[in-house]
Amino acid sequence: SAAAATAARSWRDSASLILVTEGLRVLLLKRAAKSSFFANARVFPGGAFDPGVDASADWLPLFRANGGRSFAAWHPGADGLAAQAAQFASARRAPIFESGAAASVAPLALLPEVALRICALRETFEECGLLLAADGDGNRVPHDTWASGPELRLAEWQSAVKQDGREFLRLFSILGLCPDLHSLYEWSNWLTPSTLSSPRRFDTAFFLCCLPAAFQVRLDLAEMSGEHDWLPPVEAIDRFHSEPAFSLSPPTLYELAKLAGQADSLQSLEAFAKHRGRLGTELYFPVLGVGQRLAFTMHPGDCRYPAGPDFNSGRHVDLGDIGDDQLMRDRPANRIVHAVNPDAERHVTPEGAVRPALKSGPSAKYRLDCRGLRPLCGFRPPLVPPCARL
C-alpha cells in the first residue's frame, strides 16, 4: 500500500493553501531566484510542517478558551472532523493523514487534518502576511475588523513567526481568536517525484480556501521574489504558454487546470469544495515516462502508471519501445506532457468525460480528466451548477 511504501521516507511533510477570491482569481507567489526548490516558479503559499509548532498540545488551551466548535470539532475522539475522519475507509486516503509526520506526533494532541491546516495557515502568514482567523465557533472574523490597526503591527508579527513558529500561537492568544481551520477544504496531496534533480522532496497536503476579497499581500522577500498575482486559472495557464519567464511548478499547473471551468462563482466553488473535501484525497506521486522524444509525468489513473511505484528509486519508466504517436493516443491518460520535441508547448493531456469549456488559445488544451479529482468521479454535490459537475 502507499502507506507502507512511504514508511522509508526521504522527504518532509508540508502543507499548501490555494487561495481563491472573487472573480475566481487564485493567489500565485513567485519564488526567489536563489531558491533551491522551483526557483522563479509561481506557486501557492505553503511550506514545511513543523511538529513542535503545528501539532503542539499548546493549541488546546487556546481552543478551550475560545470554546465552541473549534475545540469540539478538532480534538481527537470528539465529534466533528474526528468523526468525519472515520469516513475515510477508502484505500485512496492520502498517507500523509495516516502515516505522515502529523500522524506520528505522540501523544496525538491534534488530528493530522488539524495540524496540517495550522501548517498551511502559518506558512501563508509567513510568506505573504495573510492571517486567517476565526472565532471559537469556527466563524471567519473579517480581516479588516482587526488587521488594520497600527497597534497590531502584523509586519512585525510576520517576521517573528518566521523566526520562531511558536509565535503564531502567541499571536492568536493575544487576538483571542483561533486559526480559521474550518474554511480550509481538503483538495489534493502531492509527493515530489524521486526523479527531480533537486534533493529536496515534500509530501504536500493542498487545501483550498475561498476569500471574499483579495487582501493586501506582504511578501517575505527571503523566500519570494517580490512578485505575486491574483489570476484566473485560465489566464495563468495561458501566460505559462506564452511567457517563457512565467513558470509554474507541475502541481501548480495541474491544480490550476483542475480549477479552470469548474465553477461560475466563488460561492459555487466553495460549496463544491466543502462537499468534495469530506471524501478526502489520494496520493499523487508523479512518475516520469520517457519515450523516443516524448517525456511526461503520469499520475494515478493513467494507463501507463506503474502498479507499485517506487517512491525512492529515482528511476523513470522507459517507454522507448512504444511509438510516441501511440503514447499520445493513450487512453486513459492522466499526465502532464513536458516535451514532444524541443519546441513543443507544455500541456496537460486532454482526456476523460469532463471537458470544461475553454474556448480558444493555448488554454483550450486543458481539459480536466475526472481522475484529477479522484475519488470523486460521478460525484455531484447539491447546489453546484452544471459547469462544476464531475
TrEMBL record:
One example GO MF annotation: metal ion binding
Listed CDD domains: NUDIX_AcylCoAdiphos_Nudt19
Domain Nudix hydrolase, first and last residues per copy: 10-253
Sorted UniProt keywords: Hydrolase, Magnesium, Manganese, Metal-binding
An annotated GO cellular component: mitochondrion
Required cofactor(s): Mn(2+); Mg(2+)
InterPro entries assigned: NUDIX_hydrolase-like_dom_sf, NUDIX_hydrolase_dom, NUDT19
Family assignment from sequence similarity: Belongs to the Nudix hydrolase family.
Name of the protein described by the UniProt record: Nudix hydrolase domain-containing protein
Organism expressing this protein natively: Macrostomum lignano
